[in-house]
Each structure stands twice: as structure tokens, then as C-alpha cells.
Design a protein that fits this description.
4 helices, 0% strand, Small_drug/metabolite_transptr, cell membrane, transport, Small_multidrug_res, membrane
């Protein structure tokens, strides 16, 4: 369970750096750029630790899935991105895939 918790944290930091990219304005804003780079380092570091106890394919898919779902939700809730039934259903499919990968490991 420890490795899964590391992986979830890595995914949350992936959301942080993906959102940070938006606020770094093409790396032209120092503060957001530094925070984005820090979130990237933490995310990759936690992923590498999680890989000590999880299969590579599963861990990478879950890491990117958490990042994709979380970033889409942040975009819809806080950044004014569109919300549609198809978009929500697609996020749901990704979440089901992540659950399936957890159950298969």
C-alpha cells in the first residue's frame, strides 16, 4: 500500500505542475516557473520511489491518469474550461481504467 500512496502523491504533484505550466506563461514568469519545476521534481521523485514496488506499466498509466483527470477537473472548476456530458463521461472512463489497473495489480 505504501507504493500506491507514493504513486497517488506523485500524481497529485503532476496535476500541480501541469497547472503550473499554464501560470508560468511559457516559462516567462519566474515564481510560477520555479514552483512548476519543483512540482515536477517532486512528482518524478515520488514516481521513481513508487516504481520500487509497482510494475512500470501500471504505475506509469496510473500516474498519467491521475494527472490527466485531475488537470481536467481543475481546468473545469477553476480555469473556466468547458464542462460537457461527453467530457465528464470520458473522465469517468479514465477513472474506471485506473481502478481496473489497481485491481489487476
Amino acid at each position: 500500500m505504501y507504493h500506491w500512496m507514493l504513486l497517488i502523491l506523485a500524481g497529485l504533484f503532476e496535476i500541480g505542475w501541469a497547472v503550473g505550466l499554464r501560470f508560468s506563461d511559457g516559462w516567462s514568469r519566474l515564481g510560477p516557473s520555479l514552483l512548476t519545476l519543483a512540482a515536477m521534481a517532486v512528482s518524478f521523485g515520488l514516481l521513481s520511489l513508487a516504481l520500487r514496488g509497482l510494475p512500470l506499466g501500471t504505475a506509469y498509466a496510473v500516474w498519467t491518469g491521475i494527472g490527466a483527470v485531475g488537470t481536467a477537473i481543475v481546468g473545469m472548476l477553476f480555469l473556466g474550461e468547458s464542462v460537457s456530458l461527453l467530457r465528464l463521461a470520458s473522465i469517468g472512463v479514465i477513472v474506471l481504467g485506473l481502478i481496473g489497473l489497481k485491481l489487476a495489480t
